[in-house]
Amino acid sequence: MLLQCQCASISISIPNPDSGKDIPLYICHCTQCRRQSSSLFGTSAIFPASIIFPLSDDLKAKLSVWARPTKEGRSMDCYFCNTCGSRLMHLIREPDGLERETVSLKGGCLVESNVGNGKEKVPALDFSKATHLYTTHAVMDLETWLWPGAKRWEGSPEVMEGRPGSPSKPEGPANDGTGVGDEGGK
Hints:
Blueprint: E1 2-4, E2 11-13, E3 25-28, H1 31-37, E4 42-48, H2 57-62, E5 63-69, E6 75-81, E7 87-93, E8 102-106, E9 110-111, E10 131-133, H3 142-145, E11 151-152
């Protein structure tokens, strides 16, 4: 799997466990994610930060970072390509400045590395298994758009991969696979 910007000046090999089936994937409908993606939602695949950080000197030279506050009092370092401006990933810092052990890679920039004609690549993720966040902010009719059994939360789940105090795999209504809707997700 590759993390690749639109102009392909940044192309990072990413380990792909089980062809993307076990990669935590979030589709966020909040205003910030819609703005950063210039679309109806943003997608983030959660990986260990150690697959990219610390950044190599070459990668540092090709990336810019913009830090923004989050509503929970954290800081989000948003990394994008210096050439084409594609947002590739973000890393969250807790209020005490501690970096999370996970990095959110932008789903639209993750592609399979060994398919196609070399010019077009296919998505590397199984979007049918994504968890939808901030569904009250969605600008589409989710009842007709979502896959059957899709997990969704009105806000952010209390337990998420990478969030301090959360298990590596969330348990309970947000991740039980039953398609439990917005109940419990505040």
